[in-house]
Amino acid sequence: MILNVVADGQTFSLDVPEAMLVDAQPFFTKMDADMDKGWQLGRDWVELPSVDQRCQVVADRLLTAMENKNQNMAVMMAAYILSK
Description:
- This protein is α+β, with helices and mostly antiparallel strands.
- Helix content is about 55%, strand content about 20%.
- The strands form 2 sheets. It has a two-stranded antiparallel sheet with strand order 1-2.
- The mean pLDDT is about 95.
């Protein structure tokens, strides 16, 4: 699957192997459990983030991974978003 990310007016395509969507479910479950405890979203504390808010958190991590040229983390964060 392809996730197209638009950042700073540029479009980046991240190719996520479909098997990763299944294989990474335990990791995604742990991420969700962490976010179930509440999460800082911008300046606001969110007690129980919605699916959209969780994707915002992960999108922030995705952009950070891209800025740091951490392709593996970027693909993993893209897989989380696609799984939701």
